[in-house]
């Protein structure tokens, strides 16, 4: 498979989904039957995910047998080597400090809660992605170079640049406590000098995405209804801003929740 922009986009789309990454990793040790893969990821969406991986040139499908293509093997090997390189860099990371809170403003989802901005020094940069396993419900976004952490209603976003954003905070004292906890967890990992073991990505359920959509089936997004839109959103075939109703004041909270979920997909 040649490296042209269109093919690269297709591979990036295929590997942006946690279920498809699980399939690729499952095939790392050899070919598997479709039945075996179905037991791992569920049979309802099996054909859909296999078709996308096949179109990206990452797998070969013969009757009921699935295996990595030569391109898929090379892709997986390159990804592993990059992780190993970053692991070496992790040992040279310096402890962080959280600068004072720069801004407090009402949260869009709930005006009784606050949105907080702060700075982290030095910026975590290349090791930010490696910190993902430290937090039970978190996800690193390559597109935004950010680590999103969800703790109940509180949503924390750390950027590679050093910026830290916290949403749904009750007051300034709670913000300071969360920032101190964040610093402590990260610095403890840095002190050990070894990157945390990778873990499986948080899986977003289709019904959870559908729950926060307007559920009016207005069709303005170009889909037959909100459920169809949710399916396309899960497959990264549509962007969240296609749902224009979410921009209306009554759905502000829904939009903020969906933005977080979209980053977990």
TrEMBL record:
The keyword Nucleotidyltransferase appears for this protein: no
Molecular-function GO terms, alphabetical: 4 iron, 4 sulfur cluster binding; DNA-binding transcription factor activity; metal ion binding
Record's protein name: Helix-turn-helix domain-containing protein
Pfam families per UniProt: FeS, HTH_20
Source organism phylogeny: Archaea, Methanobacteriati, Methanobacteriota, Stenosarchaea group, Methanomicrobia
Residues annotated as domain 4Fe-4S: 201-260
InterPro entries found in the cross-reference section: 4Fe-4S_dom, ACDS_complex_subunit, ArsR-like_HTH, HTH_ArsR_DNA-bd_dom, WH-like_DNA-bd_sf, WH_DNA-bd_sf
Swiss-Prot/TrEMBL keywords: 4Fe-4S, Iron, Iron-sulfur, Metal-binding
PANTHER family, sorted: ACETYL-COA DECARBONYLASE_SYNTHASE COMPLEX SUBUNIT GAMMA, PTHR36214
Source species of the chain: Methanosarcina acetivorans
